[in-house]
Write a structure and sequence with these properties.
This protein is an all-alpha fold. It is built from three helices and no strands. α1 packs parallel to α3 and α2 runs antiparallel to α3. Keywords: Membrane, Transmembrane, Transmembrane helix.
Amino acid sequence: MHGHPVDRLVAGAIVGALVTTLLVLLLVWLDIPPEKHVSLAIRLAVPVVIAACALLIRPLLLKTVLRDRRDPLMLDEDLNQLLVGRALGLVGGFFFGITLATQIL
C-alpha cells in the first residue's frame, strides 16, 4: 500500500526541483530584488531561501515538534528520505533555474 522510502526521496527531489526552478525563474523575471540595489549573489540567494522555507519547514516540523500529528504509517525513515530528496531537489532546481533563466531571459 505504501511505497518504499526511496519513493519519498525521488518525489521530494522532483517537487524540490520544480518549486525551486519556478521560483528562480519568477523572481529573476520580475527583477526581485532589483538588480540596481543588490549584488548577483543576493539576487540568487533570495529564491533559494524562499524555496527552502517552503519545502523544508513542514517535514522538519513533522519530524520534531508535530510528531503527534503526523500519519501513524509515516516512519522516521520516510521523513528522512523526504528531507534529503527535497534538499537535493533544491540544489538541482537552483542550477536548472539559473540555466533556464540565462537561456530564456
